[in-house]
What we know:
With about 120 residues, the chain is of the alpha/beta class. It has one domain (about 5-115): Hypothetical Protein Ychn, Chain: A, CATH 3.40.1260.10. Helices cover about 40% and strands about 20% of the residues. The protein contains 5 helices and 5 strands. The protein has helices at about 10-25, 55-60, 65-75, 85-90, 105-110, and strands spanning about 5, 30-35, 80, 100-105, 115. A 5-stranded parallel sheet has the order 4-3-2-1-5. Helix 4 links the parallel strand 3 (about 80) and strand 4 (about 100-105). Helix 1 packs parallel to helix 3. The mean pLDDT is about 95.
Amino acid sequence: MRLTVILIATDGARARAxxxxxxxxxxxxxxxxxxxxxxxxxxxAAAPRADDDGAALxxxxxxDRRALLAMAQDAGVALIACQTGLALTGLGLPDLVAGVExxxxxxxxxxxxxxxxx
Length: 118
């Protein structure tokens, strides 16, 4: 059964939690998806963000947001950016990491499975 993690906030800590949860599901052989709702699409940005905390995370041996995005994609986790969020933020798919798809709540519900909000 597919796990869909709905990311509802823009902060890096939530983004890392959402990606980590989806990666855990993928490691168990379950299909997983992270859906960035509204302004949370900025968490899929290809460019570095002020809250990436790369140095602090690296010192602890942990991946930052962009590394987790790459790991998620390598594990087959689907990354979906809210179409409304793209319009609200002025971002387009080219501004996000490669492979992110645009979508909406209707398609998430059609896919079925478990939904978790972070």
